[in-house]
Predict the structure.
Amino acid sequence: MISEKINEILVDEFEVDVDLIQPNLNLKDTLNLDSLDYVDLVVIIESNFGVKLVEADFTNIQTFQDFYDLIKRKTSEN
Amino acid sequence: MEEFIRKSMEQRVVITGMGIYSCLGTSLDEVKDSLQQGKSGIIFDNERKLFGFRSALTGAVPHPNLKNELNRRQRMSIGEETEYAYLATMEALKNAAIDDTYLDTHEIGILYGNDSVSKAIIDAVDIVREKKDTSLIGSGAIFKSMNSTVTMNLSTIFRLKGINMTISAACASGSHSLGLGFNLIKSGMQDMIICGGAQEINKYAMASFDGLGVFGNDALPATEVSRPFDKDRSGLVPSGGAATLIIESYESALRRGAPILAEILGYGFSSNGGHISTPNVEGPALAMERAIKQAGIKPSDIAYINAHATSTPVGDANEAQAILQVFGETQPFVSSTKSMTGHECWMAGASEIIYSNLMMLHGFIAPNINFENPDEHSAKLNIVKQTVFKEFDLYLSNSFGFGGTNSALVIKKIND
């Protein structure tokens, strides 16, 4: 499951409890992301999935589910 | 009258905290024991040999694990030199009896010596070379890749609100940080400043220095190569870590009942205005004379000189001549603790104040280990071969750097 893999790397990178991550929760608020953290999010997604996110990709991302869908779409396009 | 008013308004400047992370130990107690025993912190690093170093000798310190001490963002923004500086500063703050509440309710500055961030820059550029995309470098790299990395990070971590800048003055950086901090407090502009010096220890940081052929012969036993003032010296040994000193006005120290370790009496600086790497005699002599003059003492009052001497042929000989010129017939005890530590470069001017303070506080003078046979100039100095157990209350510390930057500090034990 891609969502499990994503959760795993988010927990590892942002040092949060895995139980905090739920598909319907807000990604930014749950992980307490600031502008610098988005830079690191791009790096870990590229190194784990080989896809490059750009600023525009985040425009419509609210929940973790939105984020999983984004990565699925990007990896299938690749 | 004007001079009298100005003088009467000047603050006395004291040292109230020290913290050290060096190849002689990672606490004041460990370092004091190493100094007293004349123990070397130098090793042979085979990785440097394989990398292409002419001399693979270096000082070595343990790699810190700060996962439980700093949060993710803080850890991501700091490189090796700042990790050392953080640990040294934690020890210094504790030593000075400064807690979180004090940090949050007082204006404290930071002036710290640092003059390279080689590894952080190379690591970041390597990513771009491979990925062809700067957006994949990550967010922490820029904060590790600037010369001011130590002060930008420590000021954030410790929530400092006073003067905030890095002093880059080659191998005199740490000493100038103290001298400049001394002047800011003396003039009443700051009450307390965190001073010090940090030095990365990795093969990237020292490769170009090694390329000059000025490092010691690594075919000899590692602990015997750094031999300042000895006639058979073959070159310096690089080293590093970090050293932090808390300096503050005497009034501030008294007000908060702080432990007063020593007083800074004089800071002398000069620039040789000559060769980029070869030092002269006049510049260092002038720095020493100015420090002594500002301290209001005579050269013969100085009991000990912690020499800059790095174990290079020309540098040591010229410093010996400068000391002879300034101190004449009454030669104080002299040792270069670089015989044990190697050359701690950007950190050295601060760490050597800590080493000398430890000696002054514990009544001994650390040896200039490996000093067996003098040369023409060092034969006239009073170089300490074995630890001398002796109470003393006044010393001078020299630091010189590339570009001919010189700094000398005169420090006194507090007896009142």
Q: What stands out?
A: Chain B touches chain A at residues 72-73, 76, 131, 133, 135-140 (CB under 8 Å). The longest helix of chain B spans residues 80-95. The longest strand of chain B covers residues 262-271.
